[in-house]
Amino acid sequence: MAEARIELDKYTMRVLDVVKGKHGLKNRSEALAKFVDEFGSNYAEPMVDEQILKDLDDMHAEHMKKHPNRRMSMKELDELLGLD
Fold it and tell me: Of 23, 33, 42, 83, which sits most exposed with the smallest number of CB within 10 A?
């Protein structure tokens, strides 16, 4: 984890204190991390964990071994999702 020394105005400190209190956090650093977790996706795509992608690929491969003839058309998928 990186460390940074930043200057905060009074309003920013008040917002971080509210986030800290609302979520029972220990300090403003945790409050800032929580705030970024909640609102950061409005500004930047969240980072994807490569291990999660690998696990999903493994699960898909295992499922396809168990059910090799199971297929769904795009029309069937649209109907299932209510997009037709």
Answer: 42
Q: Give the residue among 62, 82, 27, 84 at the shortest CA–CA distance from 35.
A: 27
How large is the C-alpha radius of gyration of the chain? 22
Q: What share of the chain is helix, strand, coil (3-state, %, to 5)?
A: 65, 0, 35
Using pLDDT thresholds of 50, 70 and 90, give the confidence band for residue 49.
confident
pLDDT band at 27 (very low <50, low <70, confident <90, very high): very high
What's the CA gap between 18 and 1, in Å, rounded? 24
How far apart (Å, rounded) are the C-alpha atoms in residues 28 and 38? 15
CB 34 within 8 A of CB 23: yes
Cα gap 18→9, rounded to integer Å:
15
| Rounded Cα–Cα distance for residues 10 and 13 (Å) | 5
